[in-house]
Structures
1.
Amino acid sequence: MEKRLVPPSGDKHDYMSIAPYFWPDPAKPDGLPYIRKDGQVNPQRGNADTDAKALGQMSGNVQTLALAFYFTGNEQYATHAAKLLRVWFIDAGTRMNPNLNFAQAIPGRSAGRGIGIIDTVSLIYLVDSIGLLGQSKAWTADDQKAMVAWFDAYLDWMLTSKNGKDEAAATNNHGVWYDAQVTAYALLARKTDLARQMVESAKSKRIVAQIRDDGSMPRELARTNSLSYSLYNLTAFFNLANLGKHVGVDLWNYPPKQAPRLRKALDYLAPYVDPDKHWPHEQISQAKRKSNELPALLRRASIAYGEPDYDDLRRKFASDHLNDSRMLLLYPH
């Protein structure tokens, strides 16, 4: 509700954001329509004009607070996490409407796109946070009911809207993250059959279609930040595989009786945890190489496959900051 711009609907309760890689056209007096610069983020994406930054901050803060409550038992952490959730999702005066009709708009071209559904990836982790808060007196049965209702409505929008159907048809990381979102929200809403269907269909629709025998992911390698997007896509696959365990579908070892494709994808990327090893494809942002994504994937794979070599590789090259991160709490051996 505090964003400076108003969505085309006229309702500030509707989420809105600007496409990250689209910029004003310097050849046009008004800059319209915006033009694409892949991999170069328009600063407008992260300012107070729209909701993208606030959504990310809220989701990250709730996750941190919920974990802090879980590990310490301090109710103050849960109380503040519950307050943030109520403001964003429940309270009538401030809640977000359960749709992304105006996500990742391109000024002069589109008021919102299916591709914008990736803006709510952080809500996958919010589902876990809600589960942790269930042990706190600060999170009531009415809170839980209201949150489930919100996610159920958002899930219905994802499945039936044009934007949702467009994103479901995506053949790159967007499609995998869509499946991971639908699965997580379906599990929260107790729609187990839908969750199982999403994970099962990912075997051929996502894993076989997107990961080659050598572990490379061509749709991600085509990007200007190809290493970043390869890691991002594999993170989505790992999340979906983890969710699959809850519905009895094993993606970690698919296809059976062969080298699992997810493991092949990790093996393709694993050597580049060494910051001095040259990545042979385009990667215009070198800062991403210093992120926690690949160390986290190695840690998760070490657990999923019972393979300590992955964690040994992580410890060899990851900085002390990464080795001390909450990743070690989320994925303990």
2.
Amino acid sequence: MKLLSAALVLVAGCAMSGSDSDPSLEQDASSTTYVSAVDFEKIDQGAWYDGIHSLNDQFNQICGDTFCEGDYSNITPLTFACSVTSKAGNVKDCAWNFAASQLDVDPKSAAIVTQAPTFECHIKMKTTAVKLAAILAGGDSLHATLPGAPAATPSIYDQLSDCFDHPFAQDTGTYATTGTDSYVSSRDYYTSAAGAARWDAAKNAVIAGFDNVCGDTFCSSDYGDLQSMSLECAVTKSTGNVKSCAWVFGGSYFFVPEKTGQLQTEHKSFRCNFAVKGTLPQLITTWTAAGTDSVIRRPLPGVTASAYDALGGCLP
């Protein structure tokens, strides 16, 4: 399993001490071992995952008015994980990974310029897995005060602001300096609200197709937390012909070193390109036409391959 370099993963963790940890069961540091919190024997795995899903939902509900008002409007939660001592369940380190993206079309060259950063947010606290699980099961775990957290940043929410100021940048593409402005993004091709809504409906249909198949395909790899981020096409303004399309995903996973407990996380963005030999209206029709087949597996206009085929050679 490939891991990030030490420069990426050795972010300060949460060494355990204080009244909310239980040092009595693990006094010999040389013999202490660490496990993922979800694998700690006193944790109900189903309840833990329910708590993480609730935390993700809470973030998504507030992001548009907070963190997503900045450079990226689609910051998306990926993996939330913690390492704990194997006997007492004292929390050693917790990290929450995110991805974001922005796709823009060079109006002169039709190149799709990508900004797709990821974020690795280590959450500081001094507590046990059992107590943390109870916080996650609460109604507002995003804003709840964490035992042993820094006074200035007592909640998960408070600790995210600094993290989002330090992205791991994954940008591709440059803008041409010569030529005429002949191309637009698919999101900007239609000037009417009805036209824009048709494109949004097509995107939503193929993204739903990805979500329906991911659990049995792409999301069964190391990157189990794959999320669709952005999908756009470069379109010729005068004809509506699609030059190319790009679909960006964010993914992450983690590993708990048994001896140190310092979480090692991998987080990455994937840009998957696919060709269309037709117009944007034809692509919209392909993805929105009635039928019982999987939208993501429908052949793209003018070619025999589908969006699913393109992902197969791109995602892990």
